[in-house]
Design a protein that fits this description.
By secondary structure, this protein is mostly helical. Helix content is about 50%, strand content about 10%. The longest helix is centred in the middle third of the chain and has 32 residues.
């Protein structure tokens, strides 16, 4: 986010204006976090932006060097091997997230659940007004609780 803020600020400054650029800082995309971030805008931190750009450069160089190294190594070890073996510091954690999520999907066991629906209709000035009441949790996995709430 910090590096993006400076990229945006640099682009805005090309217009010649004296803009003050601030950014919203949040770590979760929830209504409360975003609202709080928008109400507490901050000046972007140049040190954090520089750190991001440094990490990007290091990741790129390591990835390029190690991709070349392991590709040439595999081509030497396995005759006829002509593929590129890509390496990137971000690829392994990302692959880990994907594998973990697939594991969760593969081992998912559906559970029966109940839900409570409440609808009220009332006549008002010759028109039927309908109000739907919804429960934020929607699913109630304990049948006794669903009966008590109903």
């Amino acid at each position: 986010g910090e590096a993006i803020a400076f990229d945006v600020a640099d682009e805005c400054q090309t217009s010649g204006g004296k803009l003050i650029v601030k950014r919203a800082i949040f770590s979760a995309v929830t209504p409360q976090e975003v609202k709080n971030a928008v109400q507490n805008l901050a000046i972007p931190n140049k040190n954090l932006s520089d750190a991001v750009k440094t990490r990007q450069e290091v990741d790129l160089r390591i990835g390029a060097c190690f991709t070349r190294y392991q590709t040439l190594l595999f081509q030497e070890i396995f005759s006829g091997f002509r593929e590129i073996v890509s390496y990137g510091p971000c690829q392994f954690p990302t692959l880990g997230f994907i594998v973990e999520r697939q594991h969760q999907i593969d081992h998912f066991v559906p559970e029966e659940f109940n839900y409570i629906a409440c609808k009220v209709a009332k006549m008002h000035k010759g028109k039927t007004l309908i109000v739907d009441f919804e429960w934020d949790k929607y699913r109630v996995f304990d049948e006794l609780i669903a009966i008590v709430l109903y």
